Amino acid sequence: MNTGATIGQAAPDILVEHWVQGDAVNFSTLPGRVVLVEVFQVNCPGCFVHALPEVLHLHQTYHDKGLTVIGLATAFEDFDKNTLQNLQRLVATGELIGDPLQQLGKAGLLHDNRLDYSLPFAIGMDALVENTARIDNTAINAFILGQLPDYADWPQQRRQPVYDKARAYLESKTHCAQTFETYKLQGTPSSILVDREGILRDVSFGYTDHLEPLIINLLK
């Protein structure tokens, strides 16, 4: 059951379909450790350019001081690319697919279509369930208001393109990623930070330069 996650309260365990690398670990199995879960998509260029290298740095710097890093691949779009099979290939060979392959390759950041770094921590695939939600006007507006609270106050001309885009996204959403939904993530890369007592301390989307000071403080 998806009960949601709240800053300052006990962090719900992440829901993993399959562990691709490392032991099955979770907040409830790591008492006394600060835990950072980096949520990414296999088809997310920014995850490989910025987020995962930064998380690798955090793992290398603070693991022996009490930090455990977990990588969690998810899927909230591009379900044909953000798959368990593509994650397994990434972990086994470093090989990228889709947009990351094109963009990182064009930027000269790959060698034989592969990353020049590896991820040494546990990595799993977010649990996916078939999306059977009804897509109607109420659902579309509720989704938009969850992202844009002042949407209802916008003029119709401004609202319509957003409505059309939201409808197209919801109609394409064949599955729901359980951890992604539980933590109400906005996209990838996203970070989930839990303290030594299992309390959720931070959930963030995008660039993570604020994480290192938070981790240092939680490790004291």
Overall description:
- This protein is α/β, with parallel strands linked by helices.
- The protein has two domains: 16-130 and 177-215, 3-Layer(aba) Sandwich (Glutaredoxin); 132-172.
- The protein has seven helices and eight strands.
- The protein has helices at residues 45-62, 84-93, 98-106, 137-147, 156-172, 178-182, 211-219, and strands at 16-21, 34-40, 67-73, 122-126, 128-130, 175-177, 190-194, 200-205.
- It has a six-stranded mixed beta sheet. It has a two-stranded antiparallel sheet with strand order 5-6.
- β7 (190-194) and β8 form a beta hairpin.
- α1 crosses α3 (98-106) and α4 crosses α5 (156-172).
- The radius of gyration is 18 Å and the shape is globular.
- The mean pLDDT is 93.
Structure, briefly:
This protein is α/β, with parallel strands linked by helices and 220 residues long. Helices cover 36% and strands 19% of the residues. It has helices at residues 45-62, 84-93, 98-106, 137-147, 156-172, 178-182, 211-219, and strands spanning 16-21, 34-40, 67-73, 122-126, 128-130, 175-177, 190-194, 200-205.
